[in-house]
Amino acid sequence: MRPVRSAVLCRLLPAPFSLALRSLVLVLLCITPRCQAVQAENVTVMEGGTAEISCRLQNYDGSIVVIQNPRRQTLFFNGTRALKDDRFQMVLFTPRLVRIELTNVSVSDEGGYFCQLYTDSTHHQVATLSVLVPPETPTVEVKQEAVEGGEVELTCMSPRSKPAATLRWVRNGREIPGVVSQQDNGKTFSVSSTIRIPVERKDNGAALSCEAFHVALGGQKRIRHYRLDVYFAPTVRIVPPTGILREGDSLSLTCSVTGNPLPRNIQWSKINDTLPERAEISGPTLQISRLSQSYNGTYLCQAQNNYGRAADHYTLLVYDNVSPPTTSTTAVPPTPTTTQQITSHSTTPTLPTPSFAPDPEDPGAVVETHSAVPYAVIGGVLALLVFTVICVLIVTIWCSVRQKGSYRTREPILAWY
Length: 417
Ligand SMILES: *[C@@H]1O[C@H](CO)[C@@H](O)[C@H](O)[C@H]1NC(C)=O
Ligand SMILES: *[C@@H]1O[C@H](CO)[C@@H](O)[C@H](O)[C@H]1NC(C)=O
Ligand SMILES: *[C@@H]1O[C@H](CO)[C@@H](O)[C@H](O)[C@H]1NC(C)=O
Ligand SMILES: *[C@@H]1O[C@H](CO)[C@@H](O)[C@H](O)[C@H]1NC(C)=O
Ligand SMILES: *[C@@H]1O[C@H](CO)[C@@H](O)[C@H](O)[C@H]1NC(C)=O
What we know:
Keywords: Disulfide bond, Immunoglobulin domain, Membrane, Repeat, Signal, Transmembrane, Transmembrane helix. 21% of the residues lie in helices and 41% in strands. The protein is of the alpha+beta class.
């Protein structure tokens, strides 16, 4: 009956009216209890997670409900599993709601899931399943090794994410802008960010980090920490003994070495000679017990790595222990030249100045300038003390004189009463 009537109407009315009328008829039909419909909801889920795909039914009258995957393969035929994939489960089938569950979701499961009702007029709805792939902690690759004075090229990589992750290089809380490249690997993306930074030896061990941001991580980020390894040539410094050395004393020289990589072998030698027999080398330290004047000479400490070599020398002068070293006639003022002497690389001990005669047990020049400072200080303090006493005396006398005057002036006033 109905098709005939609508056909008649359609013939009578122009096309737009016919379309409007058909819609109206459909709406009217749906108000009646016999009209059925499905409604599907889009789903977003993380890879490996569980997706729930739901179809809402309206006025379900027991018709067959069919659910199909994006390839239009039937998963469930009215509650009965059709496709052999255990990850799909029908969890609910009521007259209002049909719900299936998909566990261990992979990116290949993405797409539209069809929810279909076989009725007089076939209704279907599509639920779009979207899969998010959060990035793993990124990795850092060194494209060019960091040598002092050069540049280091670092690439931070996030091989798989969906949508593409955002990478950020950070040093001391500040972002270092990188060159970003993104590659589409079908469903997922690989992202990389490359930075080039100049490096000095002070940058050795500096902390950098690469952070990955992604919608699936919420506000969290995945961080890869990286420490700069800057290669540099060694530096060598001999720490000299303080004071002068006499026959019978023992000498201990320590060679302080830096470098990356740290030189493994430290070589001690004596220029134009062989090391004395009594010299003992243990690691960076050269030790000679019971010095004799024949050990006078220049001692050398050398170290090397792949990036260079370095050396420092120390000139040993052994004084005899008979005469005190007071032969010098040039009166050297007790200026603090000793500090220069200690830090300088030319490690020849100078003769102590004769102006101060310290006890012969302690002939070091260092000790003398140290004792010179207290003498000057004590002198100054004494002068100050004397000056203060004189001042106090003057003030006291002056005050007492004034007070006497005031007594005199007060006495007459008291006398009036
Ligand atoms: C579901 O996803 C599809 C494809 O992304 C989109 O066209 C549609 O509008 C979405 N539906 C809803 C209700 O969000
Ligand atoms: C389809 O399944 C529903 C729920 O189990 C049932 O009520 C209905 O009768 C079934 N329809 C047919 C045609 O088998
Ligand atoms: C989930 O699926 C992946 C492949 O998509 C598979 O390698 C993995 O073993 C599965 N995990 C579980 C718990 O089934
Ligand atoms: C080592 O010997 C050479 C030649 O014999 C000489 O020129 C040089 O000054 C000497 N070096 C030292 C530190 O004695
Ligand atoms: C060693 O050096 C001291 C100090 O300059 C000097 O007095 C002495 O003669 C030197 N001895 C030898 C053997 O060179």
